[in-house]
Write a structure and sequence with these properties.
Glutaredoxin, 2 domains, 5-stranded mixed sheet, about 60% helix, about 250 residues
Length: about 250
């Protein structure tokens, strides 16, 4: 028999006045226990809400940090000037130095150069008339890279390659980043003539163009990507600025 039931049973054998007092005491005891249960329930509910709020806050912070990591380099680095782009070339053909970049859209170091160093390189050396710049995309490897390489040529036909390639680097590691619909969407975002671009892409006009680029890279001994041919000297991205400064007589 439970404690409350025992007390009720005991009351049945006591005088009316005693019963009334003890009933009142029993009601108070029951009320107190119910109140404690309610307080415990509210406490547990409050703790659960706190855990959920903490989890949501942490998740939001993580998402924010990931987003900042993706876009912050673009805010910290100036935008490059691509207005004088001519196909895969940028700058003055009569410049004293020619720089050819050999790159690949799925190369992480190439992406780093494109997003954190290219704008400064163009502003410091190309826009000043010191460097004539050419970009060579090494597209072989898989179907996606071939699609992106072909799209690059279609964008170059409209002298919008440099604007267009930024999207290729941005979405290079997306599962659908180099699918036809995605490549066409990038063309629209880069302000290309979408109809002309789509016709070029779907007709496979430049499907085999990557072969010439591959042969060119192999013929001069390009070791990997990104590599830069500065006049007749092959250098890495980390050596590019120093090499140019030395050629321009600005090295210390």
């Amino acid at each position: 028999m439970g404690e409350i039931q025992l007390k009720v049973h005991t009351l049945q054998n006591q005088p009316i006045m005693a019963k009334s007092c003890q009933l009142l005491s029993l009601e108070v005891e029951l009320s107190s226990k119910n109140s404690k249960r309610e307080q415990l329930r509210k406490k547990r509910l409050s703790e659960k809400r706190k855990r959920i709020t903490t989890f949501v806050a942490i998740t939001a912070v993580v998402i924010l940090l990931i987003g900042l990591a993706a876009i912050l380099p673009r805010f910290l680095n100036p935008s490059a000037n691509f207005e004088d782009g001519d196909g895969f070339y940028l700058g003055d053909p009569e410049a004293p130095i020619t720089v050819v970049e050999f790159s690949r859209y799925t190369c992480s170091h190439c992406k780093t150069f494109a997003e954190t160093m290219e704008a400064e390189f163009i502003a410091k050396y190309v826009d000043t008339g010191d460097v004539y710049f050419r970009y060579v995309n090494l597209a072989a490897g898989n179907e996606g890279l071939l699609n992106a390489g072909e799209a690059s040529y279609c964008a170059a036909d409209q002298n919008k390659f440099f604007e267009y390639k930024n999207f290729l680097y941005t979405y290079a590691f997306s599962d659908s980043g180099f699918e036809t619909n995605a490549l066409i969407n990038y063309a629209e975002s880069a302000d290309l003539n979408v109809d002309e671009f789509t016709l070029c892409l779907e007709s496979d006009t430049y499907r085999g163009a990557y072969i010439n680029d591959q042969n060119y890279a192999q013929s001069i001994g390009i070791p990997g990507t990104p590599s830069f041919l500065v006049n007749d000297q092959i250098v890495l991205a980390s050596q590019l600025f120093e090499t140019l400064d030395e050629l321009l007589g600005e090295g210390t």
